[in-house]
Amino acid sequence: MKHVSTDPPPIIPARPGENRLWEWAREQFDLDPGYVHLALSMLAPHPRTVREAIAYHRTELDRNPALHFHQRDERVRRVLATAGAYLGADPDSIALTESTTAGMAVVYTGMRLGPEDEILSTRHEHYAASELLRFKAKSSGAGHRCISLYEDGPTATSEEIVSSLVREIRDNTRLLALTWVHSGTGVKLPLSRIGEAVAEVNHGRPTDRQILICVDAVHGFGVEDFTVEELRCDFFMAGCHKWLFGPRGTGVVWGSERGWNAVEPIMTSFDVEVFWPWYLGRTPDAEAPRARLCTPGGFPVFEHRWALAEAFDFQLTLGKKPVAMRIADLNAYCHRRLMETAGITVRTPADRALRSGMTCFDVEGRDPGEIAAMLEKRRIMAGQTPYRDSAVRFAPGILNSVADIDRAVETLEQIVRAGPQEPPA
Asked: Is the pTM of this model over 0.90?
């Protein structure tokens, strides 16, 4: 459907010093300049400081593993300190994991639920969350319901989302599983408003019967300007290897005091704050912070985990607010360009408050995998959403420019005009 506008395409105004900031940011990466990169929301590259930190730790571990390993506790504390600075949280409220999925496993598998409890989730969740919740319902005997928060992504409103959710809460609802930004539609949930509504429901409930809000936050992490307290959730779970530009195979779980108190460890923690009380013959449960107690142990890829501190430092150097504004501006421009393109149906809301770093769309009568492949042949890297009802996805971030979006949309227009029988490029 073509949306006609008589207005000229919007120009993103540069704020003082901003152009140089984004030029500097792009200079920190080794992305192939021959491509337009609009699929970095799936797996991001590392900036120079992260690459150098990984290389340093890898070299030292190869040179003298035992010696370099001696400082592991200090390095973990530095990662937690920088994560806390970025999230606006106490470092001891954060657990380190390998991915969003691993973080959700820590929370959902460890949560104390029984046959008298209900898990409430939505039809907008990623496969990983849906399956973990199914596993949890099966093992615990808890009920599990999936609901829709909106009928149509482009026209969704905060009021519709919040009212749809509150209407479905029951007396035995105990766990509310949500995704901050739906990667199949680009819809961003109004988490603070949801938190307020759930707080009203929780008022008067016994502490052990209150609803816990657990959020897959990966597509807002590194995009939005926030502190975790402002989101009013009990768990914030995210991988760090997408928008945050963190080392691949890293993730975090932040939990509120109420949240961590509702979860049991599912794997032995190797954090010294847990090991040392055990070593001295005491019970770690009474001494170690719950998040550290629930941090999965074993030997991760140390050079990646320890380099996570540099990823948080890089984001803090850029500034959360400038990053959020830049991504919002680019996505507003991308959304409008796609809305004005014939043969394109956009799934993402026009309301900036309900979208984040991606625009999902359909090409009339065409398979999204085919469109993504044809764009790739023309050196435009686009995403395809990993859902049964799949779509094409453009995810402009701080490493992109208006020119990138123009080139991608113009290439898409050529593909749409040529039709499905287009000869190979």
From this structure: yes
